[in-house]
């Protein structure tokens, strides 16, 4: 049995939440060990002894030490965390695309659990939870005072059991109540369709182990359905919290020339410094597996692309958007992204637990850091259904306590071309005939989410119009 520590590099959704992600393996080998601060350790031992002797109730040693580890990691930045054995198993299960829970990425802010993004096709998404919602209560238990780990544990549970969330939402006079039924969350990371003849639509909900392969299959399937060459493609990364680093590299490599730089990382240790290019060794996991991009149609390297992003697009999503933007392979459309530009390393412990430690920052091919800044779209298109209050409440990396600074803060931001805003009373054009079941599906339910890529999806339709305009220009 190999006696090596597995390390996973992840660029996951913004915080330790219901879904986490795991990536590359490496070897932890630190040649130098810092000298222990003996005076501070004596203080720690003194506090430990006072709690053991004077606290109002007896406390087990294991609980005190675990909470000390939790506090030590949580005090570093919003993404470093201690994962007990159960949380570590959930993290590993999440990368396979199946895990238990409600289907929300969450973080802790000012003592409350804050929704970063609901994951598509999950109980939380279908119930209408939104980015920026503050969870006050889990059933009848106030969240204030809980650790994030404790709150996540309470939200997990056996499938088909119910939990009531009491939520504060900006713009609402009273707290909202959501009754959710827990489920085994099986997420489909790649969804696709031919929007119109010649125009492909691919939505990636998160970056999992097989996302790159599924993307390649989707492109080949649509190419067979379309018969002729594609005229344009919409890559939808909205509300994608991230996931596996190598999956993000694979998605980028599908549209970039072989060997082009996708992302590079900088950290204190040599193992934290990487340059990942559009080559199979950087996106194919396991040396025995074949390059799943090897037989993609050559047109994918030159196909006009619009990438849709928003405030819920984080981490690996920002790597893909940044790489395609820097290489001028795509037009980025939507709203500014979340801004998570750090890499976390999963370090397994001997007791079955693990720590998730921030070890590096990542940079786009042109050296841009998106940390606490995000990717600025080439064309800004707001969501038609988002009010100014909801937009102001959108959670981003820069809003999180103890977030890492941007090492290139102050550099000139790229020029942004705003798109005309849709009038508030604008509605999708009514069909000339009685709507069928598909048309009904395209329409958003009351207070529910809009179906991405549907007639009611304003940003999607703007992207499609842009591709058609580019096609006309190319013909001229």
Task: Break the fold down into its secondary structure elements and pairings.
Blueprint: E1 8-11, H1 38-54, H2 61-74, E2 81-83, H3 85-95, E3 98-101, E4 104-109, E5 112-118, H4 123-127, E6 134-138, E7 141-142, H5 148-155, E8 162-168, E9 176-181, E10 183-186, E11 190-196, E12 199-204, H6 211-226, E13 232-236, E14 243-244, H7 245-253, E15 261-267, E16 274-277, E17 305-309, H8 316-326, E18 331-334, E19 342-348, E20 354-363, E21 379-380, H9 388-392, E22 417-418, H10 437-442, H11 458-475
Parallel strand pairs: 12-13, 13-17, 17-18, 18-21, 21-22
Antiparallel strand pairs: 1-14, 1-19, 2-20, 3-10, 4-5, 5-6, 6-7, 6-8, 8-9, 11-12, 15-16, 15-20, 19-20
Helix pairs in contact: 6-7, 7-8
What do you see in this structure?
Helix content is 25%, strand content 23%. With 476 residues, it is of the alpha+beta class. It folds into two domains: 100-186, Roll (Pdz3 Domain), CATH 2.30.42.10; 190-341 and 363-475, Alpha-Beta Complex (2-enoyl-CoA Hydratase, Chain A, domain 1). Strands 1, 2, 14, 15, 16, 19 and 20 form a seven-stranded antiparallel sheet that branches. Strands 11-12-13-17-18-21-22 form a seven-stranded mixed sheet, with helices on both faces. Strands 4, 5, 6, 7, 8 and 9 form a six-stranded antiparallel sheet that branches. Strand 11 and strand 12 form a beta hairpin. Helix 6 (211-226) runs parallel beside helix 7 (245-253) and helix 7 runs parallel beside helix 8 (316-326). The longest helix has 18 residues, at 458-475.
